[in-house]
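User: Predict the structure for this protein chain, please.
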Amino acid sequence: MRNLKLLLAYDGTEFSGWQIQPEAATIQGTLSSAIGRLTGEKVLLQGSGRTDAGVHALGQVATFVTESPIPTEDFVVALNDILPPAIRVLEAAEVAPEFHPRKSARAKHYRYRIYRSAICPPLLARYVWHYSYPLKEAAMQQAATSILGEHDFTSFAAVDPERRRNEEISNVRRIFCSSWERQGDEFVFTVRANGFLHHMVRNLVGTFVLAGKGTIKPSDMFHILEARSRSAAGATAPATGLYLVSVEY
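Assistant: Here is the predicted structure, written as structure tokens:
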């Protein structure tokens, strides 16, 4: 038995998220099916996390166990020949049996792109949140820096029925990097942490936009964190602008 790790990139637009679902195209389902066609085995790929419908990845990590004699490096070419163009295998490597893409992860890096000009180019529309209304970008940067460090992010977590079964699971996460940067017509949020809750990045972005609109003050972020209530934070930003950039081990 071999434990193989894949480095993946995908355009999430046409998929119903990562997690396999009945009667729906998903990243996990599509990849598992492609691996099964190559190896003749029933495989369920395990990912570093469940990206939502419409969310993209530049560096998702996943593993599967196989008895196939196919050389590890050949999986890259063979899988990319089978997979739709929206999913690419960038690398394949054999890892220790105990390696798990989620449990072994030390940090994850996400990026969120907001397109600020009046007209969004059609070829960008699937990959950014087009928001051309006035925003105080300095206020959004100030709000972003206020979440650095370790906090309880319950206010920024969507209700996840699977997690509620275990009340001992903590919503505390440590943020190593949180910043906004102007890149031409885009305002880009970068965040790196030891883990993320369901919809956490998109809920943070939606709340930072409130600071940009002047609806809340950047200092209100502390009160929102302390409230530990989803209703205290802003709306969930669209999935189109979000990317899983990398996973660290």
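The mean pLDDT is 96.
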